[in-house]
Amino acid sequence: MAQNHFQPDIYPEYVRLKVPEYDELEETVAEAASTPAAARILDLGAGTGETARRVLKRHPGASIVLVDSSAEMLAAARETLAEDRVESVLVQKLEDPLPPGPFDLVVSALAVHHLESADKQVLFERIARVLKPGGRFVLADVIVPQDTELASTPVASEFDRPDRLDDQLAWISEAGLEPSVLWTNGDLAVIAACRPEMEPA
Predict the structure, then answer these.
(1) CATH of 2-194, one of 1.10.1410.10, 3.20.20.450, 2.40.50.140, 3.40.50.150
(2) Which of 38, 158, 179, 190 is a plausible cystine mate for 140, CB 3.0–4.6 Å?
(3) Residue 20 per-residue DSSP state
(4) For residue 60, what are the contacts with CB-CB under 8 A and spacing of at least 6?
(5) Cα gap 43→128, rounded to integer Å
(6) Which residue positions in the chain have pLDDT lower than 70?
(7) Where would I find the beta strands (DSSP E) of the chain?
(8) How far apart are the C-alpha atoms of 28 and 183, rounded to whole Å?
(9) pTM for the whole thing?
(10) How many whole angstroms separate alpha carbon 48 and alpha carbon 68?
(11) Is there a contact between 22 and 15 (Cβ–Cβ < 8 Å)?
(12) 75 phi/psi in degrees, rounded to 5
């Protein structure tokens, strides 16, 4: 999928062609992100702002920080989002340090699968650190399904590095969050993970 990630003019059509469940996935993310109430949101791999647009509708008073490695995609996102809802736009990789927290909500759709396994683990740890106690992380992404015949999302070996769902749940738990699987469809999954209100002693 990565070869079209930096072409905002064709990406919306492309992703819906290659991922027919895209709108269902995005709506699941928005629903999962609707509680608790959020004032400050972080979108990792924000792309053209589709996830941000849907999530911001659920949090009318919130502002959002957009992170993506493509300046072109972020420029497209800025055009579709109200200026007063965007706190900042950061052109950087997911492997880079995250913007300072705390955030009530962190979301990411179809971006984290580009990372190597070890980098996913580091990212989940960073997300846990920038989340407020009681905050939520919602991840929607490509996974390696147990039944490989269910894999239908196009991936390119030089760009895409999906992992098994159980591995990612374990890494999120190890980061100090409490994950649950909200939706799966073949090789796609949506996970919601909460940072506990009280940290373990």
Answers:
(1) 3.40.50.150
(2) 190
(3) T
(4) none
(5) 14
(6) 1-6, 10, 12, 149-157, 199-201
(7) 40-44, 63-68, 86-91, 103-109, 131-142, 178-185, 188-194
(8) 7
(9) 0.92
(10) 9
(11) yes
(12) -60, -40
Q: Which pLDDT belongs to residue 1?
A: 53
Residue 169: count of CB within 10 angstroms of its CB: 17
The DSSP line for 131-180 is EEEEEEEEEEEE-B-SSGGG--S---TTT----BHHHHHHHHHHTT-EEE
Sheet holding 40-44, edge to edge: 86-91, 63-68, 40-44, 103-109, 131-142, 188-194, 178-185
**Do residues 186 and 162 lie in contact, with contact meaning Cβ atoms separated by under 8 Å?**
no
- Cα 187 off chain centre by: 16
**With 0-12 CB in 10 A as exposed, 13-18 as middle and 19+ as buried, what is 86?**
buried
Given a contact cutoff of 8 angstroms between Cβ atoms, the answer to whether 127 and 95 are in contact is no
> What pLDDT, on the 0 to 100 scale, is given for residue 154?
64
104 vs 10, 30, 138, 145, CA distance in Å? 32, 14, 11, 30
Cβ count near 141 (within 10 Å):
25
Q: Per-residue b/e over 24-52, b at no fewer than 16 CB within 10 Å?
A: ebbebbbbbbbeeebebbbbbbbbbbbbb
